[in-house]
Amino acid sequence: MPATATHTADVLVIGWGLAGLVAAGEAVAAGKRVVVIDQEPRSNLGGQAWWSFGGLFFIDSPEQRRFGITDSLELARQDWFGTAGFDRDEDAWPRRWAEAYLHFAHQEKRAWLREKGVGFFPVVGWAERGGYTATGPGNSVPRFHITWGTGPGLVAPFQAALEQAEADGRLTVLPRHRVTALVDVDGVVTGARGDVLAPSGAARGVATSRETVGEFEIAAGATIVSSGGIGGNHDLVRANWPARLGTAPETMITGVPAYVDGSMHAVTAAAGARLINGDRMWHYVEGIQNWNPVWPEHGIRILPGPSSVWLDATGARLPVPLFPGFDTLGTLAHLRATGHDHSWFVLSQRIIEKEFTLSGSEQNPDLTGKDVRLLAKTRLGKGAGGPVQAFMDQGADFVVRDTLDELIAGMQALPGGDVLDPAQVRLEVESRDREVDNDFTKDAQIAMLRSARAYRGDKLIRTATPHRILDPKNGPLIAVKLHVLTRKSLGGIETDLSGRALGADGSPIPGLYAAGEASGFGGGGVHGYRALEGTFVGGCLFSGRIAGRAAAAAV
User: Where is the FAD-dependent oxidoreductase 2 FAD-binding domain (predicted)?
Assistant: First the structure.
């Protein structure tokens, strides 16, 4: 094996996702020499954030005010803490991070991004609507701001800063460097060592080999771990699956590339860092198999409007308030109790045209490409958008038929469809349809749908006018088989408000910092048990900025 390659830096950043890019940029801006490493080829610069929808959580933003939304720090705090449900001793730092992040989202966050050239789609989305009481989980108002350019648009300014620093000789990027250990000298982390992997020309997101061609060691005054979570590693997901969510699914699809493997968690723990809240995780129940996959078991999440009828695998309608887009983990827990790994949406062509958006930068060419003409056609025109239509035409989970009997037969023909009760499906859909003939109803989903349409943004581009799904003029009928889609780790490396990794006794480990999903987006779990959405890439921005500044100040 070749001799070990050695490098030195003031600040070492492990992982070049959004948090790592931000941290590296802050350290360079402070005049420090920075090395950034990652186990993947350079085509993956930007990490998981590049694939994201780019949703950002702001409080009392100009976009909200233009749509008549009254928001405040107090209301957002009520929603965040009601959603997080902090109840553990180890939630002490996550609580502090939550308070700090709320102030960031209310004050500096938007202006900071605007200074970097990041823009936002004018219509604010309403994610995680809750449907409980005022102190329960969910967003009381729309807060989901879509980045103009989606994930790539959010990554771009931080990537540009990295590349400029690299060109200036102030920063070094080392692809295909996989850390196997953090270097510890008398209790101080002084860098990292590991394997150099074989070069790869693989496209972004495609799984790569782990063939080793050398070793490396990097000495650094401060080391920042920003290596992401565990969502691409189903074994780790199952190992950490909490009993409160039922049993782990036998079959899942994957919402992140295979390199989101959680490997740095064990490495960081071996250096003395404390991992907390590993049983808190964020997986979606509206996953569909990608007809054109990039990574293994590649799934896409439907970002649904509130009108589709949601049935479990047997055909029974989900209980109040588990409607599309209302309570992700509440729905996951309910569905896990059914004993089946899938569920169903039943809807009309009219609903899919207005209410179906697919998560991911590559599934939204209008927003990602900043194409105003395509945006108008896709969001306001007739017919389903191109990416949605592609799934209708080629997706393994879509059934499109003219009559309910034909639709049910198509559902039964898919794997797992044998447990579907046709009489129950008919009862649920026909009963729901009878409730839309009046402006008042006892059906809570229809009532919430009408409430949603009181918000101009929803009425304009997000929610269909209430109608009978079985009326042929609204057809054809559509059924979508839904899978559990792995995505985010809500726990991770415990950190203080300077991003310093903490040991078992609560003391900072000298020289070691953490940011992004590796740190539970701050503190080891800033979201608690549940998230409000738009807070994942935002958490990477915030924790990366804090860790980068603190690490630079310490060396």
Answer: 10-537
